[in-house]
């Protein structure tokens, strides 16, 4: 556990060194967030509610999803894949920590730094400049923290799986691009899933992807309450456990292939 915490701290500190990149990412996220706000205002027009979501809630949705980009690394993550191609994976596998846990700790530190340096600031700017919805009460805030942690774990497990494709192909970036572009549409990032037809929403929920973004948004906005909230968190946790197990099985197959190819 001490080693895990130390890796988290080192990863967090490493993110703090990239100040220019952080500022550029923050400015870009906020700019596109404002464009999305304009789209929402145009979409709603004179209506105050669309399928159970108020205009203020929709604006909050744009801010929250922009804030989650860095935290969940939604636009791409190839660090592990690069380590496979450079051969650094051999050293990583020899470390006194499981390969999955090693990358999990590093990504958790990265995610925390992105939340502090980008996510929190974006939400604060939205609150000051536009006005957004906030969770009501300690229970809802606690649910938001739990759902965000589970969303991060699902996101990491998916990214880990995508990066594992590097064990089987000399250039897996094309697979990675497809895997990350897919997230824009089925996680509820571009638009709340409740804006889409019911058949599409049901199809999305046969996958873990809505639990990366859409569940977080609906918990934060208070759309899910009581038994619905509990059931959403249970499903989110179940998908997280399932994906972690799939990661472990796929990793074993990948390591066996690495050993065979490497002699």
> What structural category arises from helix and sheet content?
mainly alpha
**Strand composition percent:** under 5%
Shape: globular
What gap, in angstroms, lies between the N and C termini?
A: 33 Å
Q: How many helices? A: 11
Q: What's the number of domains?
A: 1
What is the CA-atom radius of gyration, in angstroms? 19 Å
Low-confidence stretches: none
Q: Mind summarizing the main beta sheet?
A: 2 strands, antiparallel
Q: How many β-strand stretches?
A: 2
Strand order in the largest sheet: 1-2
Helicity range: over 70%
Order of helices and strands: HHEEHHHHHHHHH
Mean pLDDT: 89
Describe this protein with a few key phrases:
mainly alpha, 11 helices
Structure description:
- The mean pLDDT is 89.
- Helix 1 packs across helix 6.
- The chain starts with a helix and ends with a helix.
- It is mostly helical.
- It is 75% helix and 2% strand.
- The protein has one domain (2-262).
């Amino acid at each position: 556990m001490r080693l895990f915490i130390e890796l988290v701290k080192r990863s967090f500190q490493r993110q703090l060194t990239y100040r220019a990149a952080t500022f550029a990412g923050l400015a870009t996220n906020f700019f596109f967030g404002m464009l999305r706000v304009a789209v929402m205002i145009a979409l709603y027009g004179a209506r105050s509610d669309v399928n159970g979501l108020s205009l203020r809630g929709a604006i909050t949705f744009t801010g929250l999803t922009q804030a989650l980009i860095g935290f969940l690394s939604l636009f791409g993550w190839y660090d592990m894949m690069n380590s496979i191609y450079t051969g650094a994976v051999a050293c990583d596998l020899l470390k006194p920590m499981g390969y999955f846990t090693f990358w999990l700790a590093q990504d958790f530190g990265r995610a925390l730094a992105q939340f502090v340096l980008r996510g929190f600031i974006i939400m604060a700017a939205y609150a000051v400049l536009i006005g957004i919805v906030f969770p009501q009460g300690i229970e809802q805030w606690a649910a938001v923290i739990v759902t965000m942690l589970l969303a991060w774990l699902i996101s990491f497990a998916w990214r880990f799986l995508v990066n594992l494709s590097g064990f089987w192909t000399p250039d897996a970036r094309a697979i990675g691009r497809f895997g990350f572009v897919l997230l824009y549409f089925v996680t509820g990032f571009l638009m709340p899933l409740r804006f889409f037809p019911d058949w599409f929403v049901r199809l999305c929920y046969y996958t873990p992807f809505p639990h990366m973004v859409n569940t977080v948004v609906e918990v934060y906005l208070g759309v899910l309450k009581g038994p619905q909230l509990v059931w959403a968190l249970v499903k989110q946790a179940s998908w997280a456990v399932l994906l972690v197990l799939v990661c472990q099985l796929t990793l074993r197959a990948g390591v066996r292939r690495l050993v065979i190819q490497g002699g």
